[in-house]
Design a protein that fits this description.
Elements: H1 2-17, H2 21-38, H3 44-58, H4 62-76, H5 85-95
Helix pairs in contact: 1-2, 2-3, 3-4, 3-5
Length: about 100
Amino acid sequence: LRYVIRFYLQMSQAAFFSKAPHIVAYFFCKVAQLSLENGVCQHTPLVFLQLSSIIMRSGNNIACAHRIAKDAVALSERFNLSDQMAQLSPNFINAVGHLE
C-alpha cells in the first residue's frame, strides 16, 4: 500500500506541474480512499492535508477542511515524520492554519 500511495503522490505532483488541477484532486481523493479502506501509513497525513487544501480552494465546506487538516496533523504525531515535516507545516498553514 505504501508504494501505491507514493506512486499516486508522484503522479499528483506531475499533474500539478502540468497545470491539471482536476487530475491532482483525483489522485489525492484516490489516495485518501485507499488509506481509508486499507489503513493509514506514514504518507496519509500529507495526503489529507493536501485534500483539505483542495477543499479550501474550492470554497466548499471550510469547517470540514479545517477538521480534516487538524486530524491529519494529529495523525502525523503517530508516525515519526521528520522527513515530511518540511512539507506538513506549510501545507497546514496554507490549507487552514489561518483559521486557528
